[in-house]
Amino acid sequence: MEERQPPVRVIVPGKVYRRDNPDATHSFMFHQIEGLAVDTDITFCDFTGTIEYFVKQYFGTGVKTRFDQAIFLLLNRPSSLMSLAFFCGGSGTGAGGATCGKCKGAGWIELFGAGMVDPAVYGFVNYDAKKVSGFAFGWAWIVSRC
């Protein structure tokens, strides 16, 4: 963003290492994809439609999705968490009626945080916040456990 004017569209994959206690949804090493789109007239509807389309293409058209309100004060306003009902279909129960080990009985797994780019961010890269808008997301996943 510092080196070019909009439109900007970027997907950035990479490996992440952090101190974490391993379980079904956490690992000390995981992969992450970050995305950013900035242009004129990008709306929240563009954001949700793009994310919904991607998730349905990646996980299948039958996957249930939801956007929950979230707060990421540094970069996104409004912000959202994208969650999936994927492993147990949203029931929270696994094989034999036991609690689903993947979602821990919640029925949903948080996939990533995302939202509209805070207009204050554009000031740092000399974009006119009255002319541009955009969305960003960060998706982390544990490849060895999926």
Strand content: 35-45%
Structural class: mainly beta
Helix content: 10-25%
Number of strands: 6
- Largest sheet geometry: 6 strands, antiparallel
**Radius of gyration from the alpha-carbon trace, in angstroms:** 17 Å
> H/E element string?
EEHEEEHE
What is the helix tally?
2
Instruction: Return the average pLDDT rounded to an integer.
Output: 83
Distance between the termini: 33 Å
**Largest sheet, order of strands side by side?**
1-2-6-5-4-3
Low-confidence stretches: none
The shape is: elongated
Quickly list its features.
146 residues, mainly beta, 6-stranded antiparallel sheet, 2 helices, 6 strands, 14% helix, 40% strand, elongated
SSE order and pairing:
Elements: E1 8-17, E2 29-39, H1 44-59, E3 64-72, E4 76-85, E5 109-117, H2 119-123, E6 133-141
Antiparallel strand pairs: 1-2, 2-6, 3-4, 4-5, 5-6
Tell me what you see in this structure.
The protein is mainly beta. 14% of the residues lie in helices and 40% in strands. It contains two helices and six strands; from the N terminus they run E-E-H-E-E-E-H-E. It has helices at residues 44-59, 119-123, and strands at 8-17, 29-39, 64-72, 76-85, 109-117, 133-141. Strands 1-2-6-5-4-3 form a six-stranded antiparallel sheet. It is elongated, with a radius of gyration of 17 Å. The protein starts with 7 loop residues before the first strand and ends in a 5-residue tail after the last strand. The mean pLDDT is 83.
